[in-house]
Amino acid sequence: MKGVICVAALFCVFVSTVKGQGFSSSLTASKIDSVRSVACPVCQPPAASTAQCPACHCECLRPACPSACPNAERYYADSNGCIKHTCAGRVTIEEKHLVQDGQRIFLSGANTAWVSYGYDFGNSQYQYRRNQFIQRLDLVKNAGGNSMRTWVHIHGATSPQFDSNSYVTGLDNDGTFLADFKQYLDDALARGILIFPTLWNGAFVKPQWTSRLQGLIKDTSKLQSYLDKALIPWVKAVKDHPALGGWDIINEMEGFIKPGQYNSESCFDTRFLQNSGAGWAGQLYTAQELLRFINWQAEAICRADPQALVTAGSWSQNSQTYQWGKKNLYSDQCLIKAGGKANGILTFYSTHSYAWQGQFGSEAVFNHQFSDYNLYKPLVVAEFSQTKGAGRSAAQLFNYVYDNGYSGAWIWSDETNAVQSAGISALNGKNGAGGLVNFPL
To answer: What are phi and psi of 241, to 5 degrees?
Structure first.
């Protein structure tokens, strides 16, 4: 299967300002969507510049300067509204691999799940935590990594903004969420790091915020308010930014799931999870409710950005393969059956793998090659640790993931900086069968 994305369509766009050709420094990402498609102009110096935006260029998605960009140019709006360009193509999918400009790549990095749990973005909060985020970005950069997974809404404490009836009215109360997140992407781009935001957390319950997330999972009208007022505007605002890697809809939905439930529809029957440990965070929702929650958000992301990469992080391979009597709840058919939206599917899989009582489970990635799972999409190992690595070092764990057909490895943030750095550094400079690690953005 080639090109497992929503749609792959590029347009060559040229924008004229009132004073002449070139991008206006005030052009925002939302305005990019409305410009008219015409022939590429000859490359020329910027028509206008400001103190915040000294080098805006008139650029095209298709190469206006083939000698400068042998593949294709992309433009994007940074946090100052400056329209900039990059020659590097977006990360896409071919067959079962992640690729950039035809080259197989491997995602290597870490989790920065949070600096302040649920209080990192929106209401100008990123500015207070920016130095700590930059330290984490620098750790990955200096170790030779290329990507990071970061949690955002989590339980909905400060983003998105809810009204008294748990309907979403916006991304945050003060209206700074997009500026916060764009600044984070700019900081990541300066260090060559792709960001994969994780929207929600299913591994833990915060009682004071339960009604907010519960409303989105159980009530489709409330979920639609989130899509319309928050998710779609967010995706449209950042979809062209080179540092945006993709979207992780929910962390470990299995914490919320009700195991052991019979359903005549196999996708919603969770008897296979009985006594597996699933449901540790409360057994609050049926499989159908959780899969609909994912399906609707995946479809909204796809609609706003047909090239987006979308995943959802499973707690283990117990629920993400049909091998060994297991079930892939994240399969296209199960997601579509739950939510009814044909484009509400994942473009790549992601899973977590920790040893229990010193041993990895029989289904764990560190006991298998990627091909053993018989999946037809790439699989990223989005959480693991040396502490729960069954005696293996971080470097050994990273090398195992790289050498056994997987598409990425992100070490968990509880490990010391030294341990994380040692693991990421083990793959620095690699360009073998597992893919290129050091690629441009």
So the answer is: -70, 130
In this structure, the answer to whether residues 73 and 103 fall within a common structural domain is no
Q: Is residue 230 part of a domain?
A: yes
Q: Where are any strands of DSSP class E within 72-146?
A: 74-77, 83-86, 91-94, 97-100, 103-104, 107-112
Q: What are the CA-CA distances from residue 292 to residues 118, 219, 268, 334 (Å)? A: 23, 10, 11, 9
Neighbours of 375 (CB within 10 A): 21
The 10s digit of each residue's pLDDT in 151-171 is 999 999 999 999 999 999 999
Q: What is the total count of domains within the chain?
A: 2
In this predicted structure, what is the pLDDT of residue 8? 31
* pTM reported for the whole predicted model: 0.88
Other beta carbons within 10 angstroms of residue 306's beta carbon come to: 14
Same domain, 168 and 293: yes
Range of the domain at 6: 1-87
Residues in the chain predicted with pLDDT less than 50, given as ranges, are 1-2, 4, 7-67
pLDDT of residue 42: 38
Name the active-site residue from 59, 73, 252, 289.
Answer: 252
My answer on whether 146 and 159 are in the same domain is yes
Q: In the prediction, which pLDDT does 36 show?
A: 26
CATH number of the domain encompassing residue 189: 3.20.20.80
Report d(CA 309, CA 93) in Å as an integer.
9
Tell me, yes or no, if 59 is annotated catalytic. Answer: no
In a shared domain, residues 13 and 79: yes
In tens, the pLDDT along 276-302 reads 999 999 999 999 999 999 999 999 999
The answer to whether residue 441 sits within a structural domain is: no
Q: In 119-176, which residue ranges form alpha helices assigned H by DSSP?
A: 125-142
Single residue among 61, 87, 113 that ends a domain in this structure? 87
Residue 68's CB: how many other CB atoms inside 10 A?
A: 12
- The runs of H, that is alpha helices, within 190-286 are 210-218, 220-226, 232-238
Q: Are residues 38 and 124 in the same domain?
A: no
pLDDT at 201: 97
Annotation marks residue 383 as catalytic: yes
Catalytic entry in 73, 363, 383, 415: 383
At 419, which amino acid appears? V
Q: Which of 87, 105, 122 is the last residue of a domain?
A: 87
pLDDT at 321: 97
The verdict on 208 and 321 lying in the same domain is yes
Rounded to an integer, what distance in angstroms lies between the CA atom of residue 328 and that of residue 347? 14
